[in-house]
Amino acid sequence: MSKKVIIIGSGIAGISSSLKLKSYGINSIIVDKGNFIGGRISTREIRNGASSSFFFHGAQFFTAKTHEFKKIISSGINAKYIKEFGSFNPKKYRGNKTMRDFLLNLSKELHIQQKMKIIKIKTDNNRIKVLDDKIEEWTSYDGVISTPPAPQNYQLLNQFPSLQKTLKTGSYHACIALMFTFDEIPLYLNTHYDFYNKPGILSWMACGSDLSVWTAHTNEKFSDLNYHKDKNFLKEKIMSSIERFFFRSKIRFHSLHVWRYAKVAKKCLGPQIDPKYPVSIAGDFLEGPNVEAAFISGNKAAKLIFDRLKN
Ligand SMILES: Cc1cc2nc3c(=O)[nH]c(=O)nc-3n(C[C@H](O)[C@H](O)[C@H](O)COP(=O)(O)OP(=O)(O)OC[C@H]3O[C@@H](n4cnc5c(N)ncnc54)[C@H](O)[C@@H]3O)c2cc1C
Does residue 21 fall inside a structural domain? Predict the structure, then answer.
């Protein structure tokens, strides 16, 4: 089918939309405002001389319950860009060696343009035009799939009130991620520590690509109350929680990242495609607070766009 579709966002929802459209014979271009592929499945590099280590300061792992996502996991394991993480039941997975490797391999036949922000979307007869901040020109497409987190998606879709209505129904928890290293790696160290439902401000702490690089995440209660506060205050609070935990080891602060829209608190309800135009939304906000849910929503958006365009 010689249709031209643009997908906004190179997170897992955007990638799955593009893969699914490809399976229907529709080529698409993914554009993303960030420097790197992956959105909230994010990887940050730290160089130690000639070698590098990688923090995973967004999603730390993914799980697979659905047939569609299990297929992705098993082909990634066979091709060695996904590996099992820890020994959990149900199983958890990570990219091998990094989360970015997972996304780069999964999308290697797709057309992706990073560092390009879409600032407006409008209708033009039966086509859709989008305006970006790079070439600053309106470009015309047969269809659009828009995958930013719901509140950012809402801003883009002011010509599509039924989608805006859907996007208004959900909400997110924030999360503050503190990346750190050790002066000397402690002798006894697990790959992760789970603090869910435990006292304190942390929810989870895990190493990245190796045991020298770590990310600590704050829990929903602390994050929602404090995400807008001064970064030094947040840093001190989280550092003191970690230092208490690794009391004999010297911890070195690396960086702090505040995710305003981290995990879906309440899913969005309503139509996923505009009633008149081939404009669809996709993302975790439609299916649930995790990587697999975002993947599934991308598949659904692609099917909706394909059905609309084939008529
Ligand atoms: C700290 C944290 C920890 C998490 N832990 C886990 C976990 O362990 N396991 C798990 O399964 N899930 C976890 N999640 C949730 C998971 O990361 C998300 O549910 C999933 O990655 C969402 O994917 P998405 O494609 O819907 O959205 P995103 O990944 O947010 O992708 C949207 C993309 O749109 C781009 N964008 C936005 N606006 C524009 C624009 N105007 N123009 C162009 N591009 C734009 C953004 O740059 C972004 O790349 C975590 C999330 C966070 C933040």
Answer: yes
